[in-house]
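Supplementary Methods S3. Input chains for the assembly prediction are listed below.
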Amino acid sequence: MSKKLVFVFKDVLNGTIKAQEFLDIVMMAAAFDLSVSLVFIGDGAYALLKNQNTEQINSKNILPIMQALSIYDINNIFVDETSLQERAILAERIIPQVTPITREKAQFEISSADHVFSF
Amino acid sequence: MLHILNKSASNSTALQTCLQFVQKNDAIILIENAVFAAHQCPQLTWRESFGGEVKVYVLQEDLAARGLTESDCLEFIEVIDYQGFVELVCQHKPIKSWF
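Predicted structure tokens for the full assembly:
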């Protein structure tokens, strides 16, 4: 049985190299047929907001890659709905590829992993 | 005095420390990941810490890059663009960056 890798994002990633780094690892893991889940918690939830216009600040936008992860068979993208509520982010404001889950489910998703990567 | 903040509250204690040192008639501008502090987030009630006598601005271009709009911002925060940022810099002396 393939190993389960869970990637946890708890911080704001904008403007750092972390976003690109995690996508590289995520796609590499998926290429090796490993089971991959992404879990966004805390301020990490902000990374999922739609309509990120980075042209004015000449910065790379990772949202299109996030939305294309299903091509790599990465469909388990979760966000902790309590973290969304704490930040007053409505579910309709985030990209549709993401499934909001309860904190208990998020805890289970993370604890059921063979390996956890934290960003 | 103008205080420039560029780190989100989750990545840095800069905002907290800045608020402890900010004085009446100062201005604060939130740029880069600090713009998340302008978001209407029920958890964060930082206005009380300076009694509303400090002007707080947020940079529109950095909001847009993160999928946020003016309507997402706390009502006491004013949205400005790069030109407004330059004007603030010209109007204030000295300028302190917090990161």
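Chain A has one domain: 4-118. Chain A has a mean pLDDT of 90.
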